[in-house]
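Bench log. Compound arrived from synthesis this morning; before running ITC I wanted a structural hypothesis for how flavin mononucleotide sits in the protein. Inputs:
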Amino acid sequence: MRQHSPLQPLTQIPAHLQTIADYEKEAELHLSHMVWQYLQGGSMDEHSVRGNLSQFEQIQLLPRMLKDLTQGHTQIEILGQRFPHPIFVAPIGHQQQFHPDAEAATALAAEVLGSNMILSTFTNTDMRELKQGNPFKWFQLYWQGEREKSLSLVKMAEAHGFKAIVVTVDSPHSGIRDRERHAFFELPKYEPQPHHFIQQPQSKQNEHPLFQGLMKIAPTWADILWLSQNTSLPIILKGIVNPHDAELALQHGVKGIIVSNHGGRVLDGCISPITALELIKNVVPTDFPVLYDGGIRRGSDVFKAIALGASAVLVGRPCIYGLATAGALGVAHVLKILKEEFEITMALMGTATVDEINKDYIFQKS
Ligand SMILES: Cc1cc2nc3c(=O)[nH]c(=O)nc-3n(C[C@H](O)[C@H](O)[C@H](O)COP(=O)(O)O)c2cc1C
């Protein structure tokens, strides 16, 4: 175990920070051992965490040469909204642990870089503090047990200019995270308390603490349909990996999905999101937005996910490496690195626009 106390966040970016891997090493120096284990860890044996990263190594690109790219750009459109580029900021809870400016810093960096930010239910920065006029923000909802409680958060997001609701559905229970257990991880007691904590229900005698406890407050498809009928915002489900669920999403008023295994933090041994993406793309209409999440560490990973059908990608831990290292400045630099790597990959692949990127740019063995 590392013994030294965490370094203070930096106020300028040193020259040795050039890649996400550089930021990963640097961030560890700025966090306590316990918080580092919370950030890096996945569930059980971390097969899913490793799989999310290694899956990209198996994919080989098949570039085209001599094309005219002078009209090139990275803009995309999802559900009628145009975004400057397809690199979005994933929802990550409790960001005050990583930097005192927490989500306010991440939001500022995302805004400057034109990245759509998905704010977690477990934000330490009140959703009302995010800039009202910035159109690039979605709100991530953890179901609050009861419909009305969930809807009140959604209504608050509507009122504060969020453009979509991302309901995370892959974690009705948190994963078994060995690293956190070994490090005796506990969330800090915040002042003031984040406003969206769910009280865990107490099961009665003879009741199963899991199935008649936590699972009683987990949402079902009927709740998703109900939510979609009670908000003007589009509902996007995060954490879908099974094509059958993608089909059900379409039938329950859902306007898009995020293919994700929660960064390997919930179910270990879960299918890699890149494999799931391919399966899901086979069953949904071509214009149904399918976003990708998990293991993006390079601009070439962004390209690969888009080539396999993603409308946009989410970036989780790398943003927090930036946040822990240097607050808003660090997050902005991380996003800039990924954006530039993606643009250069597009140019080297012979693709002028994101719309042009498709499966033909991936080498298929058979
Ligand atoms: C420390 C941490 C906290 C997270 N908190 C949330 C959360 O509040 N809501 C959510 O939907 N996903 C949460 N996630 C999952 C991320 O949104 C995302 O799915 C995951 O980080 C993607 O993998 P990556 O880190 O390899 O990019 C969290 C992930 C981490 C690492």
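What the model suggests: The chain has a mean pLDDT of 95. The radius of gyration is 20 Å.
ITC booked for Thursday regardless.
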